[in-house]
Amino acid sequence: MAYAIVNGKLMDRSEAKVDIEDRGYQFGDGVYEVIRVYNGKLFTLKEHLARFEKSLASIRINLPFSTQELTEMIKQLIEKNNLHTGIIYMQITRGASPRNHAFPSEVVSPCLTAYTKEMPRPLAKLKSGVNTILAEDIRWLRCDIKSLNLLANILAKQKAGENNCYEAIQHRGQDVTEGSSSNIFMVKNGVVITHPSNELILKGITKDVILQHCRNLSIPVEERVFSLKELTAADEVFLSSTTSEVMPVIEISGSTVSDGQPGTVTRKLQQAFEQEIVSQCGNLIESTLA
Ligand code: PDD
After folding, report:
1. Which long-range contacts (CB under 8 A, 24 or more apart) does 270-278 make?
2. Rounded distance, CA 47 to CA 258, Å?
3. Taking every pair of C-alpha atoms in the chain, what is the biggest distance, in angstroms?
4. pLDDT tens digits for range 182-237
5. How many CB atoms lie within 10 A of CB 131?
């Protein structure tokens, strides 16, 4: 039997239900996190919980549990579901209340839901690299909040899929922001360049791990806005996310990146990222480097 958490309670997943007037369902009034699990162990848990709490504070929802309680619940769910390699998805909404845009005037308890999903590492793609497509970034101006409102991201990802691409690289005018569900990096003359973590992008946990490893490896980093023109002239491009790790990008809107092969800096960072997984979660069955 698979288990899920609803309102802080562990239950049979097939019985997990939310109210039709839940504000997450009606308005997207809530926030979420996706955390990677390798070998049954949570990767970068502390960072994900910190971002979750920051997102909640940004939209003025009080977490109805302590970080400690939340951690215990998540760990219990992984154990109960016997999850080896996959993800845990969790979200909190403002709760159920008669439909009205403004916050409910009565006291409403926020609704926490969580479930797990088996998801292997995308090893073949990590080795070969992926194709991408450009998409205008039409999102709001608080993309730093990991909000349930993902319509623009969905439209961008759908455009990617319809064009046989793995991801859409979003841009505001000439400025590259981030992927529909990932952060974007380019490498030029040995320097790793990525958009600063401000209100126009999500501060990726994977992005931060990568930047830390760049520092450890003495790879120069520039966190600055870069243009579409710079992107198309890059030596290497890669994207990052909890599920995609350090993913080489070999094509953008039909043009190959450099020679169309994953680059050496990207490979080095993939290696460092795998070492980080091993140090937090134990040995991996398969490596991208094999
Ligand atoms: N997406 N930017 C956006 C818009 C994202 O949705 C994500 C993650 C990231 C990368 O963040 P992180 O490295 O913390 O996963 C950047 C998750 C995985 C998702 O929605 O499924």
Report:
1. 270/126, 270/245, 270/246, 272/210, 272/213, 272/216, 272/217, 273/206, 273/209, 273/210, 273/213, 273/245, 273/246, 276/209, 276/213, 277/38, 277/43
2. 34
3. 60
4. 999 999 999 999 999 999 999 999 999 999 999 999 999 999 999 999 999 999 99
5. 18
Which residue's C-alpha comes closest to atom 5 of ligand 1? Answer: 181
- Residue 289 is which amino acid? L
pLDDT band at 86 (very low <50, low <70, confident <90, very high): very high
Residue to probe by mutation, ligand 1, list 31, 32, 33, 34, most atoms within 8 Å of CB: 34
Cα distance between residue 234 and residue 94, in whole Å: 43
Separation of CA 107 and ligand 1 centre (Å): 31
How far is Cα 129 from Cα 246, in angstroms, rounded to an integer? 10
**DSSP string of 189-220, one letter each residue:** TTEEEE--SSTTS---HHHHHHHHHHHHTT--
pTM here?
0.97
